[in-house]
Amino acid sequence: MSASGRVVARYRRHCLVETDDGARIACQISRRSLNPVVGDEVEWSSDSADTGVVSAILPRETELSRINNRGNPEIVAANLTQLVVVLATKPAADWFLLDRYLASAELANLSSVIVFNKVDLAPSAPPELDDYRELTDATCATSAKRKDNLDALAAQMRTQRSAMIGQSGVGKSSLINALLGDSVQEVSALSEKSGHGRHTTTTSVLYRLPTGGELIDSPGVRDYAPYIENPRDVQRGFREVANFAANCRFDDCAHLAEPDCAVKDAVAAGAIVARRYESYRMLLELTESLQTGHR
Ligand SMILES: Nc1nc2c(ncn2[C@@H]2O[C@H](COP(=O)(O)OP(=O)(O)O)[C@@H](O)[C@H]2O)c(=O)[nH]1
Ligand SMILES: [Mg+2]
Ligand SMILES: [Zn+2]
User: What is the 171 CA–ligand 1 centroid distance (Å)?
Assistant: First the structure.
């Protein structure tokens, strides 16, 4: 007899499935071609008193894909609702990278929050952040070190299933630990119980936040490089570009050298921030070069 559940941790060949009544069962994966990721709803059946087998993945609402270190697309999390992009003064914000993250949120139908962390080191947020007020669902300035404004961040995550992304060193782990408090230990204990140990560094985990909401933490998400399959999709990743594109003369306008391009007109008139348009151009170029590389 099979039942449904959700994947709350993924190891190399096993996963931890949470059943509808809250029990957590260590499960094998029935075949190699099946690749359940954290957040997946699955069908599983028990093969003994306390272990099970996952036999199917139910259709996903959303998928987050990245390019792995072999250059191939790979799904890293399922059924997310939100990306939380973390920036800091140190290391300095990489605005193109932020634009890529926001584009992948748009393309995957996820809401997005920008967190400017380490405000204890920088009394004022960089002026570029103002460009994003209408391009994301929220921005907040935090200090994981001083515990500044963490409740504002927690409030943004309360009704969402989020993943935190951003350059190494910006404070993602510190923020996650501060948000989770004692729940981190509970998950380590569960990993040990499932027989895979707490030092399984490749583990992806779904945490429940004490103030509500869920957080998926995964090495594949933390150093995430967004994957966009089709160059034509890039413009949908830039809300303001997509908005003006409707008024371009050509339906397939790439907003590069075409005549009567409403996007370039908007850039010239200052209605689209020039730096954002530059990010659009760079991401389009990058996506095209990756596509060529795959042929
Ligand atoms: N001053 C300051 N340092 C922080 C803050 N948050 C994290 N750090 C420090 O920044 C470094 C990187 O933090 P970490 O959480 O590992 O970043 P991650 O690579 O994004 O996970 C560590 O030395 C942290 O102690 C903050 O709000 N203020
Ligand atoms: Mg970290
Ligand atoms: Zn155009």
Answer: 4
Cβ of 149 below 6 Å from ligand 1: no
pTM for the predicted model, two decimal places: 0.90
262 CA from centroid of ligand 3 (Å)? 5
Ligand 1 contact via 172 beta carbon (within 6 Å): yes
Nearest CA to ligand 1 atom 28: 118
The reply to whether 50 and 67 lie within a common domain is no
Q: Degrees (nearest 5) of the Cα angle 106, 77, 217? A: 105
Q: Is 167 in the pocket of ligand 1 (CB under 6 A)?
A: no
User: What is the per-residue pLDDT across 134-173, written as a single tens digit (0 to 9) for each?
Assistant: 999 999 999 999 999 999 999 999 999 999 999 989 999 9
End-to-end CA distance of the chain: 44
Together in a domain, 117 and 206: yes
Question: Can you give the CATH number for the domain in which 8 is found?
Answer: 2.40.50.140
169 lines ligand 1 (CB under 6 A): yes
Residue 179 in contact with residue 150, Cβ under 8 Å? yes
d(CA 188, CA 180): 13
DSSP state of 131: G
